[in-house]
Amino acid sequence: MDTPIPNDLSAFWMPFSANRQFKAAPRLLAGAKDMHYRTPDGREILDGTAGLWCVNAGHGRPEITKAIQDQAGEMDYAPPFQMGHPKAFELAARLTGLAPDPLSHAFFTNSGSEAVDTALKIALAYHARNGEPGRRRLIGRARGYHGAGFGGISVGGISPNRTNFGGLLPEVDHLGHTHNLKENAYSKGQPDWGGHLAEELNDLAALHGPGTIAAVIVEPMAGSTGVLVPPKGYLERLRAICDAHGIILIFDEVITGFGRLGASFAAARFGVTPDVMTLAKGLTNAAVPMGAVLVSGEIFDAFMDGAENIIELFHGYTYSAHPLACAAGLATLALYERDNLFERAASLESYWRDAVHGLRGLPNVIDIRNIGLTAGIELGPRDGAPGMRGYEALVACFEAGALVRVTGDTIALSPPLIIAETQIDTLLAIVAGAIENIG
Ligand code: PLP
Description:
Layout: H1 19-24, E1 31-33, E2 36-38, E3 44-47, H2 50-53, H3 62-74, H4 86-98, E4 103-109, H5 112-129, E5 137-141, H6 150-155, H7 159-162, E6 172-175, H8 181-184, H9 200-208, E7 213-218, H10 234-245, E8 248-252, H11 266-270, E9 276-279, E10 291-296, H12 297-303, H13 323-338, H14 341-357, E11 365-371, E12 374-379, H15 388-400, E13 402-403, E14 405-407, E15 410-413, H16 421-438
The protein binds pyridoxal-5'-phosphate (PLP).
């Protein structure tokens, strides 16, 4: 089936895209079902990235579509300030039921970026309400991605995302990242080396004064900068240091949530529970935009004192807990459970690991790393043209029938959790062919 394509691409200012390069040779997607996209001219594209790390249950699941349609017919919208609708409460209960203790309350947003900014604001406000208003410093990590809001780019650690946007948030510092090719190249799962790097948090606490630090935010596995798997012991150590200094630990699980690492959340996979968790993407299988912040009972309770007629947190969005998003979220969580998709991801992990590490030895490959249903395949940069090899790999894969994601010269893979072993073989064969062809 051919889909008509627009003859003028100029008006749409595309996000995080090289607009002129794209519009000179567009890659358009017009349909999607299960493991595949369809291009306007009817080509099937195997989805190696679950869209953008988000369509974990695969595309076009009828249960989710129907839930959205039914909700749109029943009630399109309800204001979330001083009003409520049943599915918001239902989804919050369902979500916190899935999350590890003590994450017991959910605040809804419309994206991961909003979830991150919300989490940072909650952390600051918590300390202020808890009698420690001097705790205002936020700690992020180099190579961390926490969305595109001012809070997220301030604690984020990707330099082009921060450049040209003014002074950002004050009172922010960063841990170093954990990526180290010399020590950890070709690690399968969690690298052995690097747990000690968490000690940098102690150094920052000593530098600024532990009583000035409000929160530390990390992605348990850094996705956007190329699948950086946490070294063994690293997250455990961060947790212990936060506990020792009264610092809130925030896990940004926008990518790692909902089965991506073969468990409900990375917190469950690694056995390390944060005080606050940010979510989005797989929460609704990306069918309707939605994000969430989960917080511990202790944090929530700190807001629930004082006069009962006073708003406890002056924060929220017109579309917080939007009925269509809640309907999609409930249907998505039910589908994950019914089809055992988190367990499925776990059971595919060894097959996936062997398949991706099978690309070792191909031209210019300098590292392969994996965990859950994710992989980073790092290519050495072309002389004087960093990122070019990665971009060419993306184009070559798309032309050969697979969607991959690249960040710099690293190819990142994160297929829907419904992928079959034969489709893993097809995906990796396309990626291998692309790496060989681009040279
Ligand atoms: N946090 C993490 C870890 C992410 O990977 C992303 C997006 O990729 C975000 C936050 C931002 O989410 P959104 O693009 O929905 O604002």
